[in-house]
Amino acid sequence: MNRSNLPNSAFVDPTGANAEAVHDLAKEVLDQLLTQLETADDRSPLPQESPDLSATIPESSGSPGGLLEDLEKAAEGSMNSAHSGYIGHMDTMPTTISVLGDLVASAVNNNNMLSVEMSPVFSELEVELTERIAAEFGLGPDAGGVLASGGSLANLHALAVARNQMFDVHAEGLAGVDRKPVLFASEVAHTSLQKAAMILGLGTDAVVPVKTDENSRLKPVALERAVERAKRDGRAPFCVVATAGTTTTGNIDPLPAIWDITSEYDLWFHVDAAYGGALIFSKAERDRLDGIEAADSVTFNPQKWCYVAKTCAMALFADVDMLQEDFQIGAPYMRGDDAVPNLGELSVQGTRRAEVLKLWLTFEHLGRDGLDQLIDESYRLTTMIRDRVVEHNALELASRPEMNIVCFQAVPQWCPPEERDDLNSQLQQVLLSEYDLFVSLPTYHDSRWLRVVLLNPFTGEDTIQRLFNGIDAFLDAEKT
């Protein structure tokens, strides 16, 4: 094949003919990247301005120097989650080995997880590892699942299987269902549920919001009333989604009580443990997930508290055979395998990345002791911030923290309630611009709150002290 218009390092020659050019390019890119990561604390947690990158397609190939310059701009203009003061979202620096695993997966390009034939090692590894993780949740001997590119897709997958199982609409769709299907979730559940309902033909109104208590946890009494009301109104309840780790406050719905209600009304029990699922690796905190073992399906995102490079999520099922029965669409152009299924036939995505490699490598590299320590350290720092907020006469908590998220608000007596949103918005900006601290500013109960997420392994007590120094200095200055 004529390659005269291509640069010498465009591809890795399988005979090694261009090894020197490829090695030089790879070394320069990796050296530059590592330098940027090793100096992440020298840059702001958030970029100050967007990089000037051209989106044109040039006529001829670019020089290695120009490519390196563009890569440097892209990295420096990106969200800097490696900064120890980046404490605002459920994003963190990934494990080193998951980054390298992603590189390997890209290089061998066995990323079509549609079939065993096209991704033999990774297909088998995904089946085995999802079964192992499902067992960690206690989902039973028949449990397993598939990986997905994010928790929204995992929730979509779980709800699709639930819908098909509860209404037998796999082939003919919803046209023959005489009552409107509805599901239930707390009023602070993730918005991916509404998206899933829309995509599945149920409509966003099919997600019935259930009241929460003062700690952002779904009220079982309110859930039972909502189910009864839906039945009286001629609708067809089929699923309850419990949240283990709400996005804004990190609280966990009362799983055992919800399980009781789903059992009584014969409803599908899905647990969105995208964030909180990592607690299964903590000896001290895993009891917070008691009740999850009764779930029919679970969403879990190791890309969050297990530090795997994005994306890496999964939909787990207590009876994995339901994927064949209630979701599978065969691909006749792909050879089947009795031992290992073609995963693309069982999941929302056909072609997708081999996310399992970086997940498996992270478990291998950190081990249970490493994951346990990371979670316990997050809780230790959370307790420190929680106590400082409680003791502070100008701050209040949104809820009692159950995970490594602290959501709070500045409410000094001298600031009128109607001006508190502006005050907290200004405080967020000052913390970023003057103290190199990024905390997020979610809307919760119709007002602005500051949210701290303690994930970064290099965030320490000095970061917490800087946070409260910044808060106190800002409030003192605003008061005067």
Structure overview:
The protein is α/β, with parallel strands linked by helices and 480 residues long. It folds into 3 domains: 25-80, no CATH class; 104-363, Aspartate Aminotransferase, domain 2; 367-479, Alpha-Beta Complex (Aspartate Aminotransferase, domain 1). Helix content is 40%, strand content 11%. The chain is built from 12 helices and 12 strands. The protein has helices spanning 19-38, 64-76, 96-108, 120-136, 151-167, 192-199, 220-232, 255-265, 321-326, 355-391, 420-435, 461-479; strands spanning 144-148, 181-186, 207-210, 236-243, 268-273, 297-300, 313-317, 395-397, 405-410, 443-444, 447-448, 450-453. It has a 7-stranded mixed sheet with strand order 1-7-6-5-4-2-3, with helices on both faces. The chain has a 3-stranded antiparallel sheet with strand order 8-9-12. Strand 4, helix 8 and strand 5 (268-273) form a beta-alpha-beta unit. The chain is globular and about 75 Å long. The mean pLDDT is 94.
Mean pLDDT: 94
| CATH architecture annotation name of the largest domain | 3-Layer(aba) Sandwich
| Share in helix | 25-40%
- Biggest sheet statistics: 7 strands, mixed
Envelope shape: globular
Query: What is the beta-strand fraction?
Result: 5-15%
SSE sequence, one letter per element: HHHHEHEHEHEHEEEHHEEHEEEH
Q: What is the CATH topology of the largest domain?
A: Aspartate Aminotransferase, domain 2
Strand order of the largest sheet: 1-7-6-5-4-2-3
User: Low-confidence parts, pLDDT < 50 over ≥5 residues?
Assistant: none
Number of helices: 12
Our measurement of the CA-to-CA distance between the termini, rounded to an integer number of angstroms, reads: 74 Å
CATH class of the largest domain: Alpha Beta
Protein name: Diaminobutyrate decarboxylase
GO biological process, one term: carboxylic acid metabolic process
Family: Belongs to the group II decarboxylase family.
Cofactor: pyridoxal 5'-phosphate
